[in-house]
Specification:
It contains 17 helices and 13 strands. Helix 2 (18-30) packs across helix 8 (159-169) and helix 12 (266-282) packs across helix 13. The chain is an alpha/beta fold and 434 residues long. Helix 10 links the parallel strand 4 and strand 5. Helices cover 46% and strands 15% of the residues.
């Protein structure tokens, strides 16, 4: 078997066998197949697509390149969730405690900010002392003891995926949907989750802005789960405007804490409860979605979810005083609220512009390894469809310099589009793929 023959076969739009894909992944991982051949193959996939079966073969080859966790001796059912990334998406900070408080263990590996999209790990590291670098033995012990754990990706899980992603990043093939689906699912399968809720974002602030691309990605990941005997459901959710009110690490942690205390923006609360309901249903908590939803609301409003979040922070070394008194979390030295320049209905708040502005303020990374300022960010005070009067507060910028504050305000104003006529509110979800 030769790599060049596999490249040519895919170039000619023919379907690869499991053995061919395993040969390619193994050879690339151990260095027998050079970067330039793997890059040629990735481009052929981008241009010619892969079948569900091919993508599943690739997923499993990537997963088997490292440690494959078996969580069956930790809990009979462990559920995970994945978000394809967005602006203001602090959902994990609320959903994971809700689900764990309902008695369903959640062992999650999360990521850092990628481009304009914020990262769960960066948000949690706003809390002094919080460790995201647990060892596998610590991960398993915390899951067994507390039923909740949230860490960063480790080198033992799907190392071939990390190597392939780095190559895709510099060869213009990140957008290939089969490669994206296999990358996500290989890590989830290797991490041992038996059931998975996939929160696939579509819209201006999503990595897959087009609805048809988001649907294809969601359908493919659900197909992979089915072909590997796992449970999965995918939600197509809106990312045309920021989710909730805040974008920025410590700001989002505060909003999550507020939500765990029964408050928080209505759209964010509803998003969290919907995701949690599907996780609970997959995990067998409640006779149906209605019962699962009722249970989720009960632990959120009753304070059990908040207590489980505190347990998570304590277990991973975080200073719980900073979440009990969230005003102690990092605060930007400059905070200014800007008012609406006109009266009218908001017809658009460009989520990507908001996300990119947070990065420019220092709340994200322009390149890998950049330091993060956890204190900076933006508060969006209204949603699409709201009527706002001239002079009414529109958004707030949290900045660490006057220059960045001025630039950020200009950019955020540019994210708004206005209408004299009434505008419909955006839906939270566009569909469910089972």
């Amino acid at each position: 078997m030769r790599a060049v023959d596999i490249i040519i076969k895919k170039r000619e739009k023919r379907e690869l066998t499991e053995a061919e894909i395993e040969f390619l992944v193994e050879g690339f991982t151990n260095g027998d197949i050079p970067d330039y051949q793997m890059a040629a193959w990735a481009m052929a996939v981008l241009l010619n697509d892969m079948s569900d079966e091919e993508t599943t073969y690739l997923t499993m080859a990537l997963a088997r390149s490292g440690e494959m966790l078996d969580l069956s001796d930790v809990a009979p059912m462990v559920v995970d969730k994945h978000s394809s990334g967005g602006v203001g998406d602090k959902t994990t900070l609320v959903v994971e405690p809700i689900v764990a408080a309902c008695g369903l263990p959640v062992g999650k590996m999360s990521g850092r900010g990628l481009g304009f999209s914020g990262g769960t790990l960066d948000k949690l590291e706003s809390i002094p002392g919080f460790r995201t670098d647990l060892t596998m033995s610590e991960f398993l012990e915390q899951l067994r003891t507390h039923g909740i754990v949230l860490i960063g990706q480790t080198g033992e899980i799907a190392p071939a995926d990390g190597k392939l992603y780095a190559l895709r990043d510099v060869t213009g093939t990140v957008e290939a949907i089969p490669l994206l689906a296999s990358s996500i699912m290989s890590k989830k399968i290797a991490a041992g989750a038996q059931a998975l809720v996939l929160d696939v974002k579509v819209g201006l602030g999503a990595f897959k802005p087009k609805m048809e691309d988001g649907r294809r990605l969601a359908e493919l990941m659900v197909a992979i789960a089915k072909l590997t005997d796992r449970k999965a459901i995918a939600l197509l959710s809106d990312m045309n405007q920021p989710l909730g009110r805040t974008a920025g690490n410590a700001l989002e942690v505060r909003e999550a804490i507020d939500t765990l205390h029964g408050g928080g923006p209505a759209d964010f609360r509803e998003h969290c409860l919907t995701v949690a309901t599907h996780m609970l249903t997959l995990g067998g908590i409640g006779a149906d979605e209605s019962a699962a939803r009722e249970r989720a609301e009960a632990v959120l409003d009753g304070g059990e979810a908040w207590e489980r979040f505190r347990t998570l922070v304590v277990a991973q070394g975080g200073d719980v005083g900073f979440i009990d008194q969230p005003e102690r979390l990092p605060n930007a030295p400059l905070v200014e609220t800007f008012v609406s320049p006109q009266s009218g209905f908001i017809s658009q708040i460009h989520a990507r512009v908001i996300g990119e502005t947070v990065v420019e303020l220092g709340g994200g990374r322009a390149k890998k390894g950049d330091p993060i300022d956890h204190s900076v960010g933006i508060e969006v005070l209204h949603n699409v469809g709201d009527r706002v009067e001239q002079g009414e507060p529109l958004f707030t910028v949290h900045a660490n310099s006057e220059v960045k504050l001025a630039h950020a305000s200009t950019r955020v104003f540019s994210a708004y589009t206005w209408s004299d006529e009434a505008v419909e509110a955006l839906p939270l979800f566009y569909g469910v793929i089972r």
